[in-house]
Each structure stands twice: as structure tokens, then as C-alpha cells.
Amino acid sequence: MFKWLDPLAKPETLYHFCGKLLPWLMGSAIFTLLLGNIWGLGFTPTDYQQGDSYRIIHIHVPSAIMSMGAYLAMAIAAFTALVWQIKTAQWAVLAIAPIGAVYTAIALLTGMAWGKPMWGTWWVWDARLTSQLILLFLYFGVMALHGAFSDRQTGAKVASLLAVVGVINLPIIHFSVEWWNTLHQGATITKFAKPSIDPSMLWPLLISLLAFKLLLAALACYRLRTAILENEQHRPWVKQRVSQK
Amino acid sequence: MQPRRKKRLLSMVLVLGLIAGAIGAMLFALQQNINLFYTPGQLIQGLGEGKIKPDVGQRLRLGGMVVPGSVSRDATSLKVSFDLTDDSGEIATVEFEGILPDLFREGQGIVAQGVLKNATVLAATEVLAKHDEEYMPPEVAEALKGIRHVPPSQLPVQPTATNSYGG
């Protein structure tokens, strides 16, 4: 089923594949990010209750959704690395982790900045906020474990295991607002029912969501290429590339 | 698939399943403790299968909709009291002294933290506004819900602040 993926396990092929994707991903990410955020932050109507404060949704929601998306991608890479022992998948885990951690931090900080004027508090220990904070710590844990062993392979293996096990937190984050009483409101767009947001505000939000997704992919490609070069620096194909320049 | 890979795959799935099960059981057991607040129905009828009611004097949070028309303010201080309700129809009263959040309105979701004075009255030390998941421009809100939104800059200048909670 996944036979077409096999050549990409080879570092050199993956390096060139990512190199081909990178300009397209980065270009479209910057375009959609500018379009979505300028439209969302500058040209959408104000909310009937929150006034202009709601505009932070155009950064908060995409970063929060993609912080979970990044985690899922990282966990799939970690699972592949553990079961099939593919080293490029292992490098992908560490390539994605810091990007996901930054997305999570952006989601937490923008949420706090919105919570102060709207709720009346920066932080409350409700299920949604706490589980999102745990997601940040999971990212930190994966990154820290990677470097915590003198043997790099052991560190990579333990970090991957944590990444896979941490997946359990994702449904908890998503459903926390349904399972328990929380201060955080329920889902506006990530549900099967009709989104509870006016179309004039929904479109820039969806564009921003796509932008954060493309940016994640672009940055992950970039970091993965760097990781491949670093890990393969003694291989002939890398030396050849360096001597050509 | 190689037997070694199959073994690793199986053990991974097994470990993941076990941990998911353990955490699921833990969260299920902790269900009552993870809830951020009691609803008026849970406060009065009791929470969960055991119908556990909080004791008078207990510190807790109470969350619900502000009953329209129930907000009464003290003329000379910041003291305010209002009723909260939920789907169950039970009504609990919150007493508070301080500044209410901007989103505080009749019909709005509120979470109040404080000490339970008696079975249905909470002496609150903090009142937080809970926002719902709906976002819409003022014109749409007006057409859909009949909510008239006036920006603060266009509010008529009046010495009394009583009509700012009409929304």
C-alpha cells in the first residue's frame, strides 16, 4: 500500500524531494498568511459582543489546531521510526517538535491575551487550558529526551516513544470542552455541525488555518533538510554537494 | 512484513492501548474533580450517581446563565447579586462585591468562584464571563437575536450607568 513511499526513506532522495517542495510551500504559506491575517485582522466586521478583541481568533484558532496537527504528524513519524526503524522518520520527529512547541506557545499566549479582557482572567485551570499546557510540556519532553542520553540512538528511541504515547492527549484536548464543564467555549469550526461563525469571519479564518498548515509543512521541510545534511555529513553525496559550491 | 517488525508493531499497539485504557479509566474516575464548576442543577440536586452535594462553607465555582431581570445592584457600593440557572431549571444566587467583567450581561454564561453561604447562595470572590462559541457581526446579531449593539464611543452620555446592562 505504501510502496511508493519507500524511496523517500533514503536520505538523499528525501533531501531533494523536500528541496523541490520547499519553495512552493513557503511561497503559498507567506501568501495565505498575509491574505488571511490582513483580511481577518483588518477587514472583517467586529463581533456583536466582543468588539475588536475577537480578531485574535485569526491567530489563536489556527495555531491551536495546527499545534495538534503538528503533534499528530510528529507522532506518526515517531511510530514509523520505532516500528520500521527508518532513520529519516526519526529525524522528522525532531524537525517537527520545536515548530509544534512554538505553535502551542502562540495558542496559549494569544488565548491568555484574549482571556484577560473577555473572561476577566489570564489563566484558569480548566480542562482545555490545562491539557493544552500539557501538550507544550510533551513537546518540551520530546526535545529534552532527544538530547538526554549520551547514546543518540537511545535518546531518539525514548523521545519517539514519548511522542507516540502523548497522542492520547490530542482527543483529550479536543473533547475537553464537551466532556467537562470548562470556562473555554465549545468548538466553533472543528465540528460536524454548521460552523457557529458568520461567513464574513469564517473565510479569513479558514485561509489563516491553511496558512498555518502550509507554514508548518514548509518549516518542517526546511528543518528536515538541515537534519539530513547534519546526519549525513560524512557521506559522499553530501561532500560532493559541498565541494560543488 | 518481517516477523521482527510485526513484533514491534504489536508491542507498540499493545503499549498504546494499555496506556490509553489506563488514562481513560483515570479521567473517568476523576470526572467530578476535572469539572471547573458546578452548574446550579448539580449544586442543588447533587453531582454524579452518588448525588453528592457540596457542603456549606466549601470553596467552589458555580457556572450558569444569568437569569434576566435578576441582577440587583446596591446603590452606594459595588455589591451586586444575581441568579444563575441551567438546563435543569434550578436557580442559585451569587453575591459579589467588585467589578464585573465586560461581557457580563443578563442571559450570559458566568463562572463565579467563592464560598457556599447556604444550599443555594454563593458568596463570590471572583466572577468570570464565559463566552459561547458564536461569532457574528452586530448587524447579524441584531437580525438573528434582536440584540442591539452600541459601540461605547456612540453611547449617549448619561450620569446613570443602569442601562449599560440592557444587552
Automatic annotation (TrEMBL), chain A:
<dbReference type="InterPro" id="IPR045062">
    <property type="entry name" value="Cyt_c_biogenesis_CcsA/CcmC"/>
</dbReference>
<keyword id="KW-0997">Cell inner membrane</keyword>
<keyword id="KW-0201">Cytochrome c-type biogenesis</keyword>
<feature type="domain" description="Cytochrome c assembly protein">
    <location>
        <begin position="8"/>
        <end position="184"/>
    </location>
</feature>
<feature type="transmembrane region" description="Helical">
    <location>
        <begin position="129"/>
        <end position="149"/>
    </location>
</feature>
<dbReference type="InterPro" id="IPR003557">
    <property type="entry name" value="Cyt_c_biogenesis_CcmC"/>
</dbReference>
<keyword id="KW-0813">Transport</keyword>
<dbReference type="Pfam" id="PF01578">
    <property type="entry name" value="Cytochrom_C_asm"/>
</dbReference>
<protein>
    <recommendedName>
        <fullName>Heme exporter protein C</fullName>
    </recommendedName>
</protein>
<keyword id="KW-0812">Transmembrane</keyword>
<feature type="transmembrane region" description="Helical">
    <location>
        <begin position="61"/>
        <end position="84"/>
    </location>
</feature>
<keyword id="KW-1003">Cell membrane</keyword>
<feature type="transmembrane region" description="Helical">
    <location>
        <begin position="161"/>
        <end position="181"/>
    </location>
</feature>
<feature type="transmembrane region" description="Helical">
    <location>
        <begin position="91"/>
        <end position="114"/>
    </location>
</feature>
<comment type="similarity">
    <text>Belongs to the CcmC/CycZ/HelC family.</text>
</comment>
<keyword id="KW-1133">Transmembrane helix</keyword>
<comment type="function">
    <text>Required for the export of heme to the periplasm for the biogenesis of c-type cytochromes.</text>
</comment>
<dbReference type="InterPro" id="IPR002541">
    <property type="entry name" value="Cyt_c_assembly"/>
</dbReference>
<feature type="transmembrane region" description="Helical">
    <location>
        <begin position="21"/>
        <end position="41"/>
    </location>
</feature>
<feature type="transmembrane region" description="Helical">
    <location>
        <begin position="201"/>
        <end position="222"/>
    </location>
</feature>
<keyword id="KW-0472">Membrane</keyword>
From TrEMBL, chain B:
<dbReference type="InterPro" id="IPR004329">
    <property type="entry name" value="CcmE"/>
</dbReference>
<dbReference type="Pfam" id="PF03100">
    <property type="entry name" value="CcmE"/>
</dbReference>
<dbReference type="InterPro" id="IPR036127">
    <property type="entry name" value="CcmE-like_sf"/>
</dbReference>
<feature type="topological domain" description="Extracellular">
    <location>
        <begin position="30"/>
        <end position="167"/>
    </location>
</feature>
<comment type="similarity">
    <text>Belongs to the CcmE/CycJ family.</text>
</comment>
<feature type="binding site" description="covalent">
    <location>
        <position position="131"/>
    </location>
    <ligand>
        <name>heme</name>
    </ligand>
</feature>
<comment type="function">
    <text>Heme chaperone required for the biogenesis of c-type cytochromes. Transiently binds heme delivered by CcmC and transfers the heme to apo-cytochromes in a process facilitated by CcmF and CcmH.</text>
</comment>
<feature type="binding site" description="axial binding residue">
    <location>
        <position position="135"/>
    </location>
    <ligand>
        <name>heme</name>
    </ligand>
</feature>
<keyword id="KW-0812">Transmembrane</keyword>
<keyword id="KW-0479">Metal-binding</keyword>
<keyword id="KW-1133">Transmembrane helix</keyword>
<feature type="topological domain" description="Cytoplasmic">
    <location>
        <begin position="1"/>
        <end position="8"/>
    </location>
</feature>
<keyword id="KW-0201">Cytochrome c-type biogenesis</keyword>
<protein>
    <recommendedName>
        <fullName>Cytochrome c-type biogenesis protein CcmE</fullName>
    </recommendedName>
</protein>
<dbReference type="InterPro" id="IPR012340">
    <property type="entry name" value="NA-bd_OB-fold"/>
</dbReference>
<keyword id="KW-0472">Membrane</keyword>
<keyword id="KW-0349">Heme</keyword>
<keyword id="KW-0408">Iron</keyword>
<keyword id="KW-1003">Cell membrane</keyword>
<keyword id="KW-0735">Signal-anchor</keyword>
